[in-house]
Amino acid sequence: MYRVAVTGMGVISPVGNDIEKFQESIFNGVCGVDTIKRFDAADFKVNLDAEVKEFEPKKYYNTMQEIRKSDLFMQYAMAASVQAVEQSKLLESDLDKDRFGVYIGSGIGGINTTLQQTRRLEEKGPEMVSPFFVPMMIGNMATGAVSIRFGATGPTLPIVTACATSTHTIGEAYRCIKHGYADAIIAGGSEASINQLAMAGFINCQALSLAENPSEGSLPFDKRRSGFVMGEGAGVLVLEEMEHAKKRGAKILAEVVGYENTSDAYHITAPDPEAKGAVRAIGNVVKEAGIIDPSSVYVNAHGTGTHLNDAMETKALKEVFQEGAYDLHISSTKSMTGHMMGATGAVEAIASVLALENGMIPPTINYCEKDEECDLNYTPNKAEKADVQYAISTSLGFGGHNACIALKKAGSEE
Asked: Which end of the chain is more exposed for a tag (fewer CB within 10 A), N or C?
């Protein structure tokens, strides 16, 4: 068995399009939720989303032609991957490309392209559908494009598990390296599904917050919570075998020390109220990571701001940690970023690494009203200093998919 380090990170998000800005935002409680500007939402019940602002794909592509052939979810993934690889300095080393892979997932894939080309089909006929429609639409293309960009010919795999997608990509990449099948993997997720079709679908399945004020939109663990706010963006981490990283003098940002993948097998959208799948996921990760002291742990909760999820997740943490659950440092960064769907797990893993690096717990913002079902320490409204040694990040997706990873603070490698 091999150990697995994090040596690079990149992010495109509603609160910052690089690690420096993202870090500043999450520790200062910046809210990325605002009124919908991507399309005319006058006829929609939902007024809020969490959009990426001022994204510049030209910074990450060599030609405009490449951009035109890429759906927005692919562009977000490429941007975050370029950032992560540059930070890692991995390509400056003597890297065996056959042991270098890419695991980037998306919950929905190129739905903007699907919507655009459907309109073109209806308005102009089948001969006017783009020849690039399929490679821009299919969910594996972010992985494929990033693999091509960096010449990664090793294990390469997209994963689709709704909101759990990119926690699964990180976890499966961790296991791949841990068991000796790769030296390094670019792992994460991307989503760009803010459009009329996706929004209407989520509205009609009663998943989204109907709040009109941005400060009342994404309310994880607050008694007033009534649904999530749709976000977008990408998060990517470079995972690397520990000795491989040390040998080339890489900076170790954190160590991945646990992962679990379980299913509720309960309902297509609702979580199991008994939390059995989440309990097994979190409990097995705690065991694998060797976590003993709950006060040394930061939990970046899935914390969507839906009634059922937040109550169930709180129940799961209590079941795993017992009375020690009240000593955990917990927050939901979705209060700031909204729910970034397939990207959310990777972005929250990045937030977890930053919490470990800085000894600082990002807050759950706009938290006002306590709920008797959710009575743990959710780090309300302001970041708190805490010299935590471990971070746990949970992601719980439609279909009953549960994913959990554990990270350990750098400097404890020996």
From this structure: C
